[in-house]
Amino acid sequence: FIKEKKKFNFDLKILKNKKIFWPLVCLIGFLFWSGISFLGSADRGIAIYSWLKLVEVIAFIFLLINFSNWQKNFIALSLAGGLQSVLGLWQFATQQVVASKWLGIAAHAVYPLGDAVTETPAGRFLRAYGSLAHPNIFGGFVAIAFFASLFWFQKSKKSWQLIPIFFILLNFVGMFVSFSRSAWIGWLAAFILWFVVNVKVREKRIEVGKITWVTLLLALILILNFWPILNTRISGSGRLEKKSVDQRIEYLSQSKQVIKNNWFLGVGNSNYTYYLYRQDPSHQVYDYQPVHNLFLLIWSELGIVGLVLFVILLAFTCWQIWLTKNWEAGILATVLLPISLVDHYLWTLYVGLIILALVVALAWKKGSQIHLDSH
Question: Which residues are bridge partners to 125 per DSSP?
Fold first, then answer.
């Protein structure tokens, strides 16, 4: 930072760029609307806190656009995913998550109720958490880290390519032991996009072939060794799998009622579960869950105006990706799309907001004429 402090000046020319101006207006509008949502919130303290967190995330987007070296970002994401994957592999091997007050990790095991496990005829198996709150979040993060490792590999000198290849494989295994179906689907869609985009370039075909075959071979080994668990997760035939699906359907039904009663203003930022409790306080505290759909949750909390602004912002981002052929951002966005439709952590948890901010900033970097090697 000391070496670069002379460069640490926000370039106001970004506001004159037509490709980035309207997305910024939309972003500011979304921030303003989410800020005033506390006026109708049952718990204004939570709403204000969540809004300040959103302000921080948007500031993070601006920092990434203006002052970030994306090649280094990909390496950092790859290494972070690798550390998470090592932790997740150890957890899956020992079938326990050891609590740590220093890392903010709660204890998890095979048999306590509420912990994320998969039931098979052979018994219960704990899914890997990493240092995160749930295996789905862990799986989504290391899926992003997998592609960060892939981008690192493609930009590395041949003499150094074994290092990113190691992290590609490590992050893939970490994603596998999360047993997160949303992460798997997002990864598969993104990998197909990466393959299609790169196989068209003759110079890249050998590298694409190597990565594809190595990844498929590793996937085959894992599938053969853990087929009973995998089959339960894919088929959804287990008791816990059916319960998970039923709960998600129930959450969708709850959100429809919340939206029906608060379709314009919403219930306030991060007030969704508190609203459910106020409507019916007879349930156990763990029964109050956000709807597992990013768009329905934003509509429930910020109303139709907040949802429209958010969708427009995403549309601008996708259009920017298409115009600039920024396939790195497109691939990462493809990972997040299935996750956003079946989970809520991209909005409710800080780590999810940061992941979303990374993809948005990467998508906008070319539109603001800031390239990977500009710093």
Answer: 118
CA distances from 207 to 171, 198, 231 (A): 18, 9, 31
The four Cα atoms 27, 364, 373, 17 give a dihedral, to 10 degrees, of -80
Per residue in 88-109, pLDDT (tens digit) is 999 999 999 999 988 889 999 9
- Angstrom distances, CA of residue 77 to CA of 20, 151, 164, 189, 361: 25, 11, 11, 20, 14
Averaged pLDDT, 8-20: 54
Start-end of H helices in the chain: 18-36, 44-67, 70-94, 135-155, 162-178, 181-199, 205-225, 227-235, 239-261, 272-279, 294-324, 327-342, 345-348, 350-364
How many angstroms separate the Cα of 103 from the Cα of each of 36, 87, 112, 189, 203?
34, 12, 21, 32, 43
Q: Residue 107 carries which DSSP code?
A: P
* Confidence grade of residue 69 (pLDDT, cut at 50, 70, 90): confident
- CA-CA distance, 360 to 4, in Å (whole number)? 24
Residues 180 and 143: their CA atoms lie apart, in Å, by: 10
Q: At what angle do helices 294-324 and 327-342 cross, to 10 degrees?
A: 170
Q: How does DSSP classify residue 180?
A: -
Quick one: residue 236, left, alpha or beta (phi over 0 = left, psi -120 to 50 = alpha)? left
Residue whose pair of structure tokens reads 């603001």 in the numeric block:
368
Q: Give the pLDDT confidence of 276-315 residue by residue, as tens digits.
A: 999 999 988 888 999 999 999 999 999 999 999 999 999 9
Nearest to 107 by CA among 94, 119, 118, 120: 94
Distance CA 234, CA 227 (A): 10
> Is it the case that residue 196 has pLDDT exceeding 80?
yes
Distance, CA of 170 to CA of 174 (rounded, Å) = 6
Query: What's the whole-model pTM score?
Result: 0.91
Residue 373 confidence (pLDDT): 39
State residue 126 phi and psi, 5-degree precision.
-75, 130
Question: Two tokens at 125?
Answer: 């198996």
